[in-house]
Write a structure and sequence with these properties.
The chain is mostly helical. Helices cover 73% and strands 5% of the residues.
């Protein structure tokens, strides 16, 4: 009986924690500038950070769910506040003869869902390598930082490569660049935006994640 009560309490706590992370993701997605950090030459998004930390605390399934919420907010933003390339994220937006479609959903959701999954397994894998029991509340800063960077890079690499392979010529036309020069531009985005975002995610995940793991211990 006592074991069932503990299990029920844990499930309730996890549901409340999940709801908290969902609220954070929604706020960061829809409140202007809240989900971004200005770095001078660019704005680094940090909306994936709650997904990463949520996955570390709650496991890969809930991490995937939180990533799905991130993807949903991205689709909504690109539908109702579109820019020239919003068709790659929303099946409901079109630009001239180019229409968003099922491939837009793949780009919008798959990378975001995998953020939490990848981050969780990177974190637990490193914790095991340093001979610490997973979920013991003592996650090293290195494991948390690596999980943060891995989660952020998962998003950037899959989104940008998805755009190249699924919407290459349409995206190049919308951006006003030659199709054969597109992948060079994508590599530039990965280097100038993806790498700084990964660094920011690593720092925030290490700092916030360590505190939250200590609280949940």
């Amino acid at each position: 009986m006592e074991k069932k009560m503990r299990t029920s309490t844990t499930k309730t706590k996890d549901m409340v924690t999940t709801a908290m992370f969902v609220a954070i993701i929604l706020a960061m997605s829809f409140v202007p500038y809240l989900g971004y950090i200005p770095l001078g030459f660019m704005n680094a998004t940090i909306i994936h950070v709650p997904v990463i930390i949520g996955a570390i605390l709650l496991g890969p399934a809930r991490g995937a769910f939180l990533g799905g919420i991130f993807g949903l907010t991205s689709m909504i933003n690109n539908t109702f506040n579109p820019n020239l390339t919003s068709f790659v994220f929303s099946p409901f937006y079109s630009l001239g003869n180019v229409h968003g479609n099922f491939k837009s959903l793949m780009i919008c959701f798959v990378p975001r869902i995998l953020i939490g999954v990848v981050a969780y397994y990177v974190y637990t894998g490193i914790v095991k390598l340093v001979k610490k029991k997973k979920n013991d509340g003592k996650g090293s800063a290195a494991a948390l930082a690596a999980a943060g960077a891995a989660g952020a890079l998962t998003n950037t690499l899959l989104v940008m490569n998805g755009i190249y392979f699924l919407f290459g010529s349409s995206y190049a036309n919308a951006k006003g660049i030659a199709t054969d020069a597109l992948y060079g531009v994508i590599l530039g985005v990965i280097g100038t935006q993806g790498v700084p975002e990964a660094i920011v995610a690593a720092v925030l995940t290490a700092a916030i994640g360590k505190a939250l793991l200590h609280i949940r211990r």
